[in-house]
Amino acid sequence: MIQRRTVLKTGAALTGAIGSAGLLAPALSGHAQARTTDQAQAADLDPTTIPQFQQAMPVPPTLKPTSVSGKAAYYEMTMKEADAEILPGMLTRVRTFNGSFPSPVIKAASGQRVVIKQTNQLTVPTSIHLHGAHVPQSSDGSPMDLIAAGGGSKTYTYPNNQPHANMWFHDHAHHEEAETVYRGLYGLYLLTDEKEQSLNLPSGAYDVPIALRDGRFDDAGQLAYTMNDPNRTVLMANGKAWPYFKVAARKYRFRLFNTSNMRFFALKLSDNSPFQLIGSDGGLLEKPLEVTSVALSPGERADVVVDFSRYDAGTTLVLENTRPLRPGEPVEQLSKVLQFRVTGPARDTSVVPATLRTLPPMGTATVNRSFELYVDETGATNNAYINGQAYDMSRIDTEIEYGATEIWTIHNANTRLPHNFHVHLVQFRVLERGGQPVTSGPEVALKDTVAVQPGETVKIQATFTGYEGTYVYHCHMIDHAAMGMMGNFRVSATRS
């Protein structure tokens, strides 16, 4: 049983930066604000008393379609609360799809539509966004395209007319999304195609998706939520706090998803041994990269292959995090994420080829735009902005001509706080970081989310095609988006 230490929960600020618990009071709905205030008085569980590497990391179950007709697969999902054993010996109330935490994985193929009826049995409205997907506006999960609480439903259609990608779905209902995602309403969506299937990468039981995140718990084992809380210091993998995972002495493919609201990860193996990075947000890289670490901001994904055949049976390795969120965090505690336990040899015919794919040409950009990200670091207010404006659902911030290729310059105007930037509808390419061209490394890939460090400027390029409509771009530190760091863009054909 976990020991408990009572610590008054204060919603403490980022050092010298973000203020306390009652963040963005005018923008939050009344019941959301009340929950935040109540939980700010709860007693914390001491994270150092949580046993590490005592629970096995589960592999999320694959959801089976209710029916398949032609080139369409049909699913039904119900959003509801359930209890999950995140901490050893304690049950935590979470928000789930189909009562499962981690939520079921949907496996789809390019060219085959996926149709999902989502029913909302929660007490808050929701809007489900498939992160990384090329979809019509009606199925994008707009922040104000809500599914009513208490039994409302909506059917989402995902055409899957894009190449393979590791995507994920989560709540996007504005002012509710930060808490609802934090409490568990997210799931993984693995899209494959003929190109990916033609490669002999590790597969089956040796292809493992892992959703990484953090959390803060009260002394009853419940997730404690305060917007923009920097004290979420319990790390989880597939819904378990500091679990272990048994691996055979052979190659594994791990699809890593950063599903945290706020936390950045920099992941490495405890013996500093190299592994292969084979993919990013929008699917495989052109060529595998040998790396010793991989960085993930909230919402980003990394596809890696680790070869455990170099280890003897009985060896243990730890997947470590070398990126604290802020100065003063408990580095020893936060440096550990997941333990691998090598069990012994297993047959392995998989191969990571020297060439994985050919990326599509980028085209010629005809429009340049600039976006400045800023959140008040003084604590005087609790607001977040893009280009000096907080999100307004009725305002179109950016008009884009259908088919246009554009270069966007994204600047983080904060001096201490990182941000990142996610664009709906499209995958983009990173052109520059800090004034230097990006010509090699993990960002030479298809991306939909990019990290922007304090004071940093990043340039990206995207082509806006496929669908007309209104979509959003935002910081994918979800709490920042809920605080207003989001904008609307409208894609439309030229009208004569």
Automatic annotation (TrEMBL):
Its EC number is 1.16.3.4. Residues 80-195, 242-310, 378-492 form the Plastocyanin-like domain. PROSITE patterns: MULTICOPPER_OXIDASE1, MULTICOPPER_OXIDASE2, TAT. It is an enzyme of class 1 (oxidoreductase). Residues 1-34 form the signal peptide. One of its GO terms (molecular function) is copper ion binding. It comes from the Bacteria. Keywords: Metal-binding, Oxidoreductase, Signal. InterPro entries: Cu-oxidase-like_N, Cu-oxidase_2nd, Cu-oxidase_C, Cu-oxidase_fam, Cu_oxidase_CS, Cu_oxidase_Cu_BS, Cupredoxin, TAT_signal. It catalyses: 4 Cu(+) + O2 + 4 H(+) = 4 Cu(2+) + 2 H2O. Belongs to the multicopper oxidase family. Monomer. This is Multicopper oxidase CueO. It comes from Streptomyces colonosanans.
